[in-house]
Design brief:
about 775 residues, alpha+beta, Phosphorylase Kinase, domain 1, Transferase(Phosphotransferase), domain 1, 9-stranded antiparallel beta sheet, 20 strands
C-alpha cells in the first residue's frame, strides 16, 4: 500500500489518500448505480465493494468533490484510486478508511472523551489532531470528512520516491547519509510527540525522499484512527501489525513515544543492511521474534560498521518499552556519538522528559473475539492473508464404462520418460538462452558534458547521452535518465531517452537568465547518473535501473577544481573558468591596445599595457600596478580578478597563484588518482599540452608588454600581443586546417576547457 501511494505521488500534482480495508465490508452490488456520468454513489450504498471487479467499477463515480479515474492498487489494507478534484481540477489519489462512523458500528465512542456523543464527531476530533501537525518532514493532513458513514482523509501531493526504491536500487547507505535521515525522522517524531500524536506504524515503507533529498514521513496517526474506529480493536491490531510493530502493540498493551523508538530501531537496521532483522515463512513466526528474540547483530550483515551500533540498536528495540531510549532524539544523538561525534553543523536534540497523555496514547480496548480468558495473541492469530476467490469448474459426468488399465505403462516408466523429456527441454532452453546472451552484447552508453552555447562559455550546463544496444522497452514504458547526488539524494530529472533505430539519445540543457537557478553547472547537481525503466510520466526514479555511471570520487575532486570551484581563487571560481575568463579579457584588451595605437593615443596605450600585465601576472606579479585614475575614468583597461594567468607567489593568497599553472597541476593530479579512468587520463594529458601552449604565448605577450612600457608606439610589440592573444584564446590550426586539436602548438584555452569537460565524461554500464 505504501509503495502504491508513493508511486501515485510521483504521477500527480496534488493528491488525496485514503485506506479501504476490503476484507471487512459487505458487498451490495444490486443497490449501487455506476452511471456513465459521475454521480454521488454514496447516496445509494452504505459501504463500498469487496471484490476487485466491484472496486474497479468505482471508476467514473463521484465521491463528494472527487471523480474516480482508476483503481491503482488493492492490498490487505485496502484500495487506492487516482481521482480528480472537481473543485480545482487537480489529479489526486483517493480511497476510503476501513471503518464506519455510524454510531452503532463504530468503536469510537468507547475510546474518546465522554463529552463526544457522535462517532463522526469523534473521527473529526482525531483527524483535526493529526491535521495540526505542520512540519517539513511530515506529509500534512489537509482535508478530512465523510460520505454517509464512510470517512475519508486528504493529503497534498509532494513529488517523492519511496526510500525502499532507493535501497533496492543501490543497497545499504553510508553512515553519514543514514545519520541525516535518522535526524530527519527523529525531528518529525519529536514534533509529533510534542503534539501528543504517535506514529504507531513507522516503517521504511512509510518514508520517501523528496526532490531535494529530504525525508518525508507518511501516515502519522492513521493506525490509531483505524483502531479507534473499530469495536474489535485487539483483533484488528493483530491482523494488521507491520514489520516494525513493538511488542506492546502486538500484545495490545499501553503505548508511548518509546513505541515509535522501537520502529526507528527496525528502520535503522534496514537502512544499514537493506534487510529486515526478522524473517520467516509465516507472519506468526516473525511476530514471535519481535516478542522474544533480541535484534540480530548488524555486523553479521555489514561488518564494516562500528561495533557500538549493535548496542544502541539493542537498546532501541528492547522488548520492554522502559528499557529503550525515552525519545527519538536520544536515539539519533546516540547514533551520531558513535559514527561522527564531532560532526560539524549538527545540533543535537534537546532531551526532555517524555510526555504521555492517556487521551492520545491510550491502551486499546479489552474486547477480544474469544473473550479474555486464556487469550494468547500469537496462538489466536490464525490466517492473516485473504484466501483467493474460488470458482468451481464444471462437474464431470459419472463414468458409464469400465476401463481396462492392464496395458498402461507402469507409473515408474512414465516418470522416467517424463523426466528425460523435461531434462531435454530444459537443457535446450538454457542453451538457447545462453547463446542469445552471448550473441546480444550488453548495452553501452556515454554521457558528455558541455556548454549549452558559445554564449555560455564556462557554464558546463548541458549534457548529451548516447546509448547503443539497449533493448526496446515494454509497451507503455520508457527509459528515463536521472542525475542523483549520492550524499543528499537530491534528484534531477533529465528526461526520457529518444530512440533512433538501435540507439537511444538525450540532450539536456540547464539554461536561463545569467545568475538564475536554471543556469546551473550540471556537475554540481549529482555524482551518479542512472537510466531507469519507468511507466508513465515518471517524476522520480522508481523503476528498474538498467544502466548507471558514477564519477570516480578521488579523481573527480580535481575535475571539480577545474570546472566547478577552487577554494583559494577569488569567489572560489573554478580554475578553467578563471583561465578562460582572463584569456577572453586579455584578447579584449589586446584589441583595445591595437585601437589606441592606430589613434597614436599614448595615454591609452599605457593604460591597456598595464591592464594586460595585471591580467597576466595577478596581484602578486612584479609588474602589477593598480590602474591610474585617468584609465578608470575613461573606461580604459581592466585588471582581472587579481589571481593572474601565470604563476607568481602572492602574499594575498599565501601560495603560488595563476589559473594556467594551477589548472595544469590539477589536471595532472586527477590523472594520477587510483580511480582515474583511461578516458580521464587521456583528456587530462590534453589539458596539460594545451595549457603549455597558452603559457608560452602569454609569456611572450608579457615580454612585449614590458617593451611597450618603454616604447609605447612599438608596432612589432603591439602586433605580437594582438596575434598571440587570439592564439591563447582560440588556438590555431596547423597546415591551413581550421580544426584546432589539443596538440603542441595548436590548442588554446577554449580547447583546454573542452578537454577538461571531457575529463568528466561518464561511461554507463549495464546493470542487468
Amino acid at each position: 500500500m505504501h509503495n502504491a501511494i508513493r508511486l501515485a505521488m510521483m504521477r500527480v500534482d496534488a493528491c488525496v489518500y485514503v485506506w479501504l480495508e476490503v476484507d471487512s465490508w459487505t458487498v451490495y452490488q444490486d443497490s449501487v448505480r455506476f452511471p456513465q456520468e459521475p454521480t454521488d454513489i454514496w447516496r445509494s450504498v452504505r459501504l463500498p465493494m469487496l471484490e476487485r471487479p466491484s472496486l474497479e467499477r468505482f471508476v467514473g463515480a463521484r465521491i463528494n468533490s472527487y471523480v474516480v479515474d482508476q483503481l491503482i492498487e488493492q492490498s490487505e489494507l485496502g484500495a487506492l484510486y487516482s481521482a480528480r478534484d472537481s473543485r480545482n481540477n487537480s489529479q489526486c489519489v483517493l480511497a476510503v478508511l476501513s471503518m464506519s462512523v455510524a454510531t452503532e458500528d463504530s468503536g469510537y465512542l468507547s475510546s474518546v472523551s465522554p463529552g463526544i456523543s457522535l462517532a463522526s464527531d469523534a473521527f473529526g476530533h482525531q483527524a483535526s489532531t493529526i491535521a495540526s501537525l505542520q512540519h517539513p518532514y511530515i506529509l500534512p493532513l489537509i482535508d478530512y470528512g465523510s460520505v454517509g458513514d464512510v470517512p475519508y482523509l486528504a493529503w497534498p501531493m509532494v513529488a517523492s520516491r519511496p526510500l525502499t526504491s532507493r535501497l533496492g536500487q543501490r543497497g545499504s547507505l553510508d553512515l553519514l547519509t543514514i545519520g541525516r535521515y535518522l535526524d530527519q525522522i527523529a525531528g518529525a517524531l519529536e514534533y509529533a510527540h510534542e503534539h501528543l500524536v504517535l506514529h504507531r506504524s513507522l516503517t521504511v515503507d512509510s518514508l520517501s525522499l523528496q526532490r531535494d533529498g529530504r525525508i518525508l514521513v507518511h501516515d502519522f496517526g492513521i493506525r490509531r484512527m483505524l483502531e479507534l474506529g473499530r469495536k474489535d480493536v485487539e483483533w484488528y491490531a493483530l491482523r494488521n501489525w507491520n514489520e516494525a510493530c513493538a511488542p506492546e502493540q502486538i500484545l495490545s498493551n499501553q503505548v508511548n513515544p518509546a513505541t515509535d523508538v522501537y520502529a526507528m530501531g527496525i528502520v535503522l537496521y534496514q537502512l544499514l543492511t537493506s534487510e529486515a532483522p526478522y524473517t520467516g515463512a509465516r507472519r506468526k513466526d516473525i511476530m514471535q521474534q519481535h516478542l522474544q528474540i533480541p535484534i540480530p547483530s548488524v555486523r553479521t550483515r555489514r561488518p564494516d560498521v562500528p561495533v557500538e551500533l549493535d548496542a544502541i540498536l539493542a537498546t532501541a528495540t528492547a522488548k520492554q518499552a522502559s528499557d529503550r531510549f525515552s525519545q527519538p532524539g536520544a536515539f539519533a544523538n546516540a547514533y551520531y556519538d558513535i559514527v561522527s561525534p564531532q560532526h560539524a553543523g549538527r545540533v543535537p536534540f534537546k532531551l526532555n522528559a517524555g510526555v504521555i497523555h492517556n487521551g492520545i496514547y491510550p491502551a486499546v480496548s479489552n474486547v477480544t473475539p474469544n473473550g479474555n480468558a486464556g487469550y494468547d495473541p500469537v496462538d489466536q492469530l490464525g490466517p492473516l492473508a485473504a484466501l483467493p476467490h474460488y470458482r468451481p469448474g464444471p462437474t464431470l459426468p459419472p463414468a458409464t464404462t469400465v476401463t481396462d488399465y492392464s496395458h498402461r505403462p507402469s507409473p515408474l516408466r512414465i516418470l522416467l520418460i517424463a523426466g528425460l523429456l523435461v531434462a531435454v527441454i530444459l537443457g535446450s532452453f538454457l542453451a538457447v538462452t545462453r547463446l542469445g546472451s552471448l550473441l546480444s552484447p550488453a548495452p553501452t552508453g556515454q554521457v558528455t558534458f558541455m556548454d549549452s552555447s558559445a554564449q555560455a562559455l564556462g557554464k558546463t550546463n548541458a549534457l548529451e547521452i548516447q546509448i547503443t544496444g539497449l533493448a526496446a522497452p515494454p509497451s507503455g514504458s520508457t527509459y528515463h535518465a536521472w542525475m542523483i547526488d549520492q550524499q543528499s539524494e537530491r534528484v534531477l530529472a533529465l528526461g526520457a531517452l529518444v530512440p533512433h533505430g538501435h540507439t537511444y539519445s538525450l540532450s539536456y540543457q540547464s539554461i536561463g537568465p545569467v545568475g538564475s537557478d536554471t543556469e546551473t553547472n550540471l556537475l554540481t547537481l549529482g555524482t551518479l547518473l542512472e537510466i531507469t525503466l519507468e511507466q508513465g510520466n515518471a517524476l522520480l526514479p522508481t523503476g528498474k535501473v538498467v544502466m548507471s555511471g558514477a564519477f570516480p570520487p578521488k579523481a573527480f575532486v580535481h575535475v571539480g577544481h577545474l570546472l566547478v570551484s577552487f577554494p583559494t581563487t577569488p569567489g572560489t571560481v573554478a580554475l578553467m573558468v578563471g583561465a578562460e575568463t582572463d584569456t577572453e579579457l586579455l584578447e579584449t584588451q589586446a584589441e583595445a591596445l591595437q585601437t589606441a595605437a592606430a589613434e597614436r593615443d599614448v595615454a591609452a596605450i599605457q593604460c591597456e599595457t598595464q591592464s594586460i600585465l595585471d591580467i597576466i601576472e595577478g596581484a602578486g606579479g612584479p609588474q602589477y600596478q593598480p590602474l591610474a585614475g585617468i584609465c578608470g575614468s575613461q573606461h580604459r583597461g581592466a585588471t582581472g580578478d587579481g589571481f593572474g594567468l601565470l604563476g607568481t607567489f602572492s602574499s594575498t593568497y599565501s601560495e603560488l597563484t595563476g589559473y594556467l599553472t594551477s589548472a595544469s597541476e590539477h589536471a595532472a593530479l586527477a590523472a594520477t588518482q587510483p580511480d582515474a579512468t583511461p578516458n580521464l587520463r587521456v583528456h587530462a594529458h590534453n589539458v596539460e599540452v594545451t595549457i603549455a601552449n597558452v603559457e608560452k604565448w602569454v609569456t611572450t605577450i608579457q615580454q612585449n608588454a614590458i617593451i611597450l612600457q618603454k616604447t609605447p608606439l612599438s608596432q612589432p610589440a603591439i602586433q605580437a600581443i594582438v596575434t598571440l592573444a587570439g592564439k591563447a584564446l582560440h588556438g590555431i590550426g596547423q597546415s591551413g586546417n581550421q580544426h584546432v586539436s589539443p596538440a603542441a602548438g595548436e590548442g588554446g584555452i577554449a580547447t583546454a576547457f573542452s578537454e577538461a569537460q571531457q575529463m568528466a565524461t561518464l561511461t554507463l554500464v549495464s546493470k542487468s
